[in-house]
Amino acid sequence: MTNKNDFKDFVLDQLDAVHDIRAKAMFGGFGLYQDKNFFGIIAGEKLYFKVNENNRFDYGERDMEPFSPSKGKVMKNYYQVPEEILENKDDLVLWAWKSLSGAEEN
Questions:
Q1: Do the Cβ atoms of 103 and 20 come closer than 8 Å?
Q2: For 65, which DSSP code?
Q3: Domains parsed from the chain with CATH numbers
Q4: pLDDT tens digits, residue range 58-93?
Q5: Collapsing DSSP states into helix, strand and coil, what is residue 66?
């Protein structure tokens, strides 16, 4: 990928089966929303989804890292999506819906 918009466009294309999805600039990257629900973060060339009781195990068993917007700050409710999930549209959509099942409207 050559810039952050290329990666954002790739993620949105992978998630095209999730209706009403959009990316909004934030954290020097993008926040992902489905309707009014904030459920993901794109930072650099990494994708993070919100974790909850429905998906926490998926990230834990793969030893994925939480989102860190700056040195010393960690957001433990957003974890990096594994590359093999990111590259598979069907799997990524499933992971997105699991994340959304615990997302709160903002």
A1: no
A2: P
A3: 4-100 (3.30.1460.30)
A4: 999 999 999 998 888 999 999 999 999 999 999 999
A5: strand
Q: What is the pTM of this model?
A: 0.90
The span from the CA of 51 to the CA of 49, in Å, is: 6
The widest CA-to-CA distance across the chain, in whole angstroms, is 35
Element (H or E) spanning 85, and its range? helix 83-86
HSE on the CB side for 62, CA within 13 Å?
Answer: 15
- Both structure tokens of 1: 């990928």
Instruction: Name the strands in the sheet holding 21-26, side by side, starting at the edge strand that comes first in the sequence.
Output: 21-26, 29-34, 37-43, 46-50, 73-80, 66-70
pLDDT digits (tens, 9 = 90+) for 22-47: 999 997 899 999 999 999 999 989 99
The alpha carbon of residue 29 and the mean position of all alpha carbons in its chain are separated, in whole angstroms, by 12
